Amino acid sequence: MILRKTLSSLVLMLLYGCHLHMAKTVMNGGDLEAALPEPRAYIPDSQNLDFVYHDHEELTRFLRATSARYPNLTALYSIGKSTQGRDLWVMVVSSSPYEHMVGKPDVKYVGNIHGNEPVGREMLLHLIQYFVSSYTTDQYVKWLLDNTRIHILPTMNPDGYAVSKEGTCDGGQGRYNARGFDLNRNFPDYFKQNNKRGQPETDAVKDWISKIQFVLSGSLHGGALVASYPYDNTPNSMFQTYSAAPSLTPDDDVFKHLSLVYARNHAKMSRGVACKSATPAFENGITNGAAWYPLTGGMQDYNYVWYGCMEITLEISCCKYPPAYELKKYWEDNQLSLIKFLAEAHRGVQGFVFDPAGMPIERASLKVKGRDVGFQTTKYGEFWRILLPGYYKVEVFAEGYAPREVEFVIVEQHPTLLNVTLQPSKRIEGIGAGGPSYYRPIPAPQHYRPVPPYVASASNDNGIFSTISNGLNSLYSNIFG
Ligand SMILES: *[C@@H]1O[C@H](CO)[C@@H](O)[C@H](O)[C@H]1NC(C)=O
Ligand SMILES: *[C@@H]1O[C@H](CO)[C@@H](O)[C@H](O)[C@H]1NC(C)=O
């Protein structure tokens, strides 16, 4: 075993040497995470933010006051309004709050998608307060904010929250939006046609993530203690509601790793103790979503399949809406996890796709070989992909350019910087005026959007079995999370 490890790192070193000309690895803007001391615990100042639940007006007041007090570190924007007209506030925390830092990742947290699971909502307010109050005194926080734009949506379902009851550990009151829709069943689905009518809250989030390329994301829930990763759905969930089997992505190694980062930095999640005797215990505090229970229309599968954003679901409290006096304990349990998880955006490969003149190519499609879920470049030609140490090939396509395959190596200590230049594609003459170019790629957005399986088997989805199965699924998920 030890020998094999040594050998494989030797191979890696050799490969690394061989391919230096293709992927130059350099330090990522200033200090490296590995060289930094651990973030320090934050000492809450109850004058700024107490450990109590904040209603929508109080939450709005806190965010406004913070953005006024820390104009160099925060920006407040609304991505839209809830069904009942409450703003869906997002606070950016970064040393560049108003502008994307070219070459540096944007990441996000979403809280309270289920209105009656508000621990995450309060944790995110404290995370904001922690960041702004520690920036000048904590090297780790400074590094993170100098190199990352962190977008925080503390509540995606303020209307549901408004009708939830403190102290209610189970049940569905307040889970849904004001029209009774479960927002975590309201996204387009990769495996099954989702006929649920799009809700204002979901539409706002879809629009948001279509505009900003998020590299990494966490969605905060309550009702269990586990980090759960895609896929949440499966091609045959009808038969799997109870005999749940894993539904794994081609990036399973990365998703497991990200989930473990959260669980291991949490005070107790990685112990994998069941919340109650009747609920499951999760080995190391992580689970594949579908292996727990499959669901259609979830947010994490959508982020990953449509935008290549690595989102996981963080269930951070056994009780969905615990009494306020427990919030301080939840903060202590989660604060390191919340920070260390975001730093994972700085693992893997990042770079730019250029044309021969050095101009960025927007919407180039990339796919790491063997991982058939793609991602795209931004308008600056940037891309990111979280990957564990190893040897990889990436395929790069863009309309009007010859596709390329580039090899690179990922190491543990710092991200690999990789710039790719694409050459214009050659046209084959004589096919006809304005005829297709030789390398005519499928239009970029579809290139690596896998064909949803339901297109091929739509008839399976309309029967009474599927209706029954959906009913069971929602019953099951109301209980657990
Ligand atoms: C890649 O391109 C960016 C943007 O032009 C540049 O800042 C960076 O130094 C380049 N990196 C490498 C490894 O060539
Ligand atoms: C914000 O940054 C500017 C320029 O660096 C500085 O002059 C100003 O004092 C800062 N403001 C605050 C409130 O820190």
UniProtKB/TrEMBL annotation:
PROSITE patterns: CARBOXYPEPT_ZN_1, CARBOXYPEPT_ZN_2, PEPTIDASE_M14, PROKAR_LIPOPROTEIN. InterPro entries: CarboxyPept-like_regulatory (IPR008969), CARBOXYPEPT_ZN_1 (IPR057246), CARBOXYPEPT_ZN_2 (IPR057247), Peptidase_M14 (IPR000834), Peptidase_M14_domain (IPR050753). GO terms for molecular function: metallocarboxypeptidase activity; zinc ion binding. GO terms for biological process: peptide metabolic process; protein processing. One of its GO terms (cellular component) is extracellular space. The keyword Glycoprotein applies. Keywords: Carboxypeptidase, Glycoprotein, Hydrolase, Metal-binding, Protease, Signal, Zinc. The keyword Translocase does not apply. SUPFAM superfamilies: Carboxypeptidase regulatory domain-like, Zn-dependent exopeptidases. The active site is at E315. Residues 52-345 form the Peptidase M14 domain. Residues 1-23 form the signal peptide. Its cofactor is Zn(2+). Belongs to the peptidase M14 family. This is Carboxypeptidase D isoform X3.
